[in-house]
Amino acid sequence: MKKVLLFSSILTLFVAAIFAASAVPTTSSTSATLSVVAMVNGEAIYSNVLKNAANIGQTLQAIQKANPKMYQLLISSKTGTNFLKSYNKAVLDNLIDSLLMEQLASKEYGIKFTDTQAMIKVQEQVLQMLKTYNITKKQFSQYIQSQGYGSVEQFEKNSLFTMKFSMTVEALRKAVTSSATVSENEVKQYYNANVDTFKTPKQINVEHIMSDSEATANKILKDIKSGEITFESAASKYSLDTRTKDKNGDLGWIPESANMPDFEVKLFATNIGKILGPIKTSYGWELFKVIGKKDASIKSLAEASQNIKKELLSKKQERLWNDWLKGVFDKFKKDSKIKVYI
User: Fold this and answer.
1) What spatial distance separates the first Cα and last Cα of the chain, rounded to whole Å?
2) Torsion-angle region of residue 273: left (phi > 0), alpha (psi -120 to 50) or beta?
3) For 178-185, what is the mean pLDDT?
4) Distance between CA atoms of 26 and 37, rounded to whole angstroms?
5) What is the pLDDT of residue 33?
6) Domain 2-176 classified CATH 1.50.10?
7) Residue-range domain boundaries for the chain
8) Dist. CA 45–CA 36, nearest whole Å
């Protein structure tokens, strides 16, 4: 049962990613019999594109299963009907923006992808998903059909719109932000201004044994000191901490901090191999053993340089992209001829 639920969750996330609202379909249909829901600079957006993007049918089915009262409210009340209409309109607004971006990308940057290019990318993603989660194409087909998406072929065809837009935005963003650079001097200035963030405090590696009473902890400690059992074996055998008992009671590396409890202060003063306790903590009576120590350190400029450069470059690219959206794209949208028919 758990495997079935996990399988459904994985595929649900994958399907949702394909039809995500942030990357909605944008091109027109090849069928002249479908109604036009919007015209954008002479280019049509058809009803089937909006239907796939809004995905209201499948969403209502899911709501009906999860919350029947909410489902009834949505389909039978004026408030619910108005909400669905508003949602549909909001999705169409996203479609219009997406189509505008594709038009601008083609006009100003020569960026345009074909159905063939998009289909190759869609099929690559499907195959990668099947490989990653060890799912057969038959299982995938059965699931998407049960969710109302049709055959795998239809699913892939419907995904073309989204994929073309996603590819367009990726290429467009790259073109818009290509002028962003980071100098070595900028990296150095950032490092000097944020040097504290590259410091690593002292650390200790600690094992522990958690027990329910001081008497029990003392009995375990006595057996360890007599050599009847090792600290690690005792942790595996007696510790009440289920998270660490299978790891010999290993708590991992603990960094030194200004607000440590008293027992941690004592642990930092304890030599490697020594045992501290029993100590009463909020979890019970505990024994601790220090098994490793690291001195405080700081990353050099050379060590931190690559990550700093990536961070600064990312911030510059984000600013350029946002400026482009607010400037170039918004102006293009304002000057465009847009007609909505719903």
Assistant:
1) 44
2) left
3) 97
4) 12
5) 53
6) no
7) 2-176, 184-195+299-317, 202-295
8) 6
pLDDT of 337 over the 70 cut: yes
Q: How many angstroms separate the CA atoms of 304 and 188, rounded?
A: 10
Q: Using one digit for the tens of pLDDT, what is the confidence trace for 38-63?
A: 999 999 999 988 888 888 887 888 88
Q: What type of residue sits at position 83?
A: F
Is residue 177 within 8 Å of 317, Cβ to Cβ?
yes
The CATH classification of domain 202-295, taken from the options 3.100.10.20, 3.10.50.40, 3.90.226.10, 3.40.710.10: 3.10.50.40
Residues whose CB falls within 8 Å of the CB of residue 200, separated by 6 or more in sequence, listed in order: 255, 294, 296, 297, 298, 299
Which range, of 156-160, 162-166, 262-266, 301-305, averages the lowest pLDDT? Answer: 156-160
